[in-house]
Amino acid sequence: MNAFLFPLAFVSPALFLSALLGLKESREHPVLKSLALGLCAAVAFYGMRCDSSTDIYRHIALLPAYNTSFLGCFDAGHYGGLYVWDIWCWIIEKTGDPYLLQCSAAFVGYSIIAYICIDYSCRYERGQAGWVAPFLFAVCAVPVFPLVAGIRSTMAVLICALSFYLHSQKEMPLVIAALLDVCAIMIHQVAIFPLIFLLVLPLARKGATKAIVTCFVTFLFIAAIGQLILPYLPSDNGVLSFLRKALESLLRYDAGNSWTEANRNSLNGIANRISTISLILVVVTLSMKYLKKDEGNKALFGLGLYTCLISVASMALIIVLPVNGERFLPTAFALGAPFISDLSSANKKHGDRAPFVAASVVAILSLAALALHVYSLVYGLEDPSGLVLTCLFGAIGATFGL
Q1: Alpha-carbon distance 266 to 283, whole Å?
Q2: Could you report how far apart the first and last alpha carbons of the chain are, in Å?
Q3: Is the keyword NADP assigned to this protein (predicted)?
């Protein structure tokens, strides 16, 4: 990758992204290119200014509490026990620019997504620019607003996606992968569930179909009776209190909140759920190919099974919890996105129209999801013009337009 392209990310993220997507190289550099795409996203989202109803507005308002020493930051946060998040906020506070919080989220999130797609493409020889279609699918599928304006839960589960990818495809030890998941839990407690999936995967490998069905039923059960269990879980007892917080992060956002009630019954909310379930079915269908015993690739078997478990757990939650059931999904979409390349490779090998039709359907579903996600993003902005300026003109737009 030509290093001279990097300054273009600060001049115009839109042009930089177009150049990267169109760049065909005989040898890809997953780490370098993923960091470049993350940088592009960071510059683009600097101009985002959200209204007071959003999480990022609250996160920025709490940043002054982190104007303390490094050790003091662990007692400064609004949340207890989220030490990685405390360090993150402390670093942003020390920069003096609170809007770097959303930039850092965009950088980390899209770098992880890009790395998984690019490295998979290189590892399994999907051809020049074979990562582009999977990356675009992931960008469309992963909701942009929770990533850059909600930050905590999406960052946590994307880190879990990266840890599992490194474990299954790069042979990173299970202990290290679990430690990365623990770090993710210290950003948002919802990451405890991907950690559980990671730890039970060896058992799930013995019977993939049974494991998937059991996972679906279990999460239906959790969502259905979770509200009954929560009052009996102590809030001051180590492990049980942490489990209580994890369940609350899944269940309580859907209860007693006017915004969630409105979103539950709105046309936009219903369309989002239909779109989300459609993309889940795409990911599960593509992942199931690698759950056949005759495939013979244990790494892909594990990747496909883990992706399916996350996907069906999310679907179960969405059925019962329409508003808050999709919190795991960035993990499934990030890990399932590389399987999109199977559609184009099948089309080249067999020459029939079925893979082309399937790819077209996936493209339409992806674009529909992107449109819904962009609508949600714009709805939460005070003024979209700042975001448009930094997307098109980068640092120049931020200097003269904000």
Answers
A1: 26
A2: 32
A3: no
